[in-house]
Amino acid sequence: MNYTLHHGDCLEVMRSIPTSSVDAVIADPPYSSGGFTRSDRSADPAAKYVQTGVDIVRASFSGDNRDGRSWCYWMALWISEACRIVKKSGYILIFTDWRQLPLASDALQAGGVVWRGIVPWDKTEAARSPHTGYFRHQCEYVVWGTRGVSTPAAWGGPWPGYIRLGVNLADKHHMTGKPTNLMRQLVQCVPPGGTVLDPFMGSGTTGVACRLEDRKFIGIEMDRGYYETAERRILQTTKIEDYPLLALAAD
């Protein structure tokens, strides 16, 4: 079997994973965002991230109500474990939004990672629309770095520094889930047959991408319902034609 799944808290599980044992950590942690005030951030994710008028068909999730300082400290804790687990020159990629982007880059460096850059994910004009007189919030961001020096990759690259890809609701199995084709693009930083660790597995999209791209996968998820969804999706991912790879580079 080329994947291993854990149901539990990422900090507890990561401590049991051997040092220098994975090629990359790709994580989509709770943003603790979606507002400007403490009451905004403590709201249920369904109130913060689901568009008004859209039927809620996905379960909510926990861990999304930290204030800025506690979120940054918590991020640095698990990132330091990620930095221990990843191989020398291995990659650490973390999703965030515009509100948490400054703290995410701080946490990455506080965790011992050498910050290398930001990859914007442009969700296209179909993303949630603000009122008139407002710039669209149509991008999320991948803050990335390496454990120590960055070395040339013999298997590929350079990879796109900007990805334009809309959300496909049929391919979204978590309230804040990312597109399968987006994750397929990101796992290219790992050599074929290499291992990706996702400490916040959610509905398992990174694991699906790894199976499609011939990478090994370790996933951790705290929520039992989403863990079972991920387990089912990853187990059933056998036909690559079910997920045609799209052109992801900018137009």
TL;DR of this structure?
By secondary structure, this protein is of the alpha/beta class. It has helices at residues 10-14, 38-41, 45-49, 68-85, 101-110, 180-186, 205-212, 224-236; strands spanning 3-7, 22-27, 86-96, 114-122, 139-146, 163-164, 195-198, 216-221. The chain has an 8-stranded mixed sheet with strand order 1-8-7-2-3-5-4-6, with helices on both faces.
How would you describe what is shown here?
The chain has 251 residues and is of the alpha/beta class. 28% of the residues lie in helices and 20% in strands. An 8-stranded mixed sheet has the order 1-8-7-2-3-5-4-6, sandwiched between helices. It is globular and about 50 Å long. The protein starts with a strand and ends in a 15-residue tail after the last helix.
Layout of strands and helices, then pairs:
Layout (H helix, E strand, L loop, with lengths): L2 E5 L2 H5 L7 E6 L10 H4 L3 H5 L18 H18 E11 L4 H10 L3 E9 L16 E8 L16 E2 L15 H7 L8 E4 L6 H8 L3 E6 L2 H13 L15
Parallel strand pairs: 1-8, 2-3, 2-7, 4-6, 7-8
Antiparallel strand pairs: 3-5, 4-5
Helix pairs in contact: 4-5, 6-7
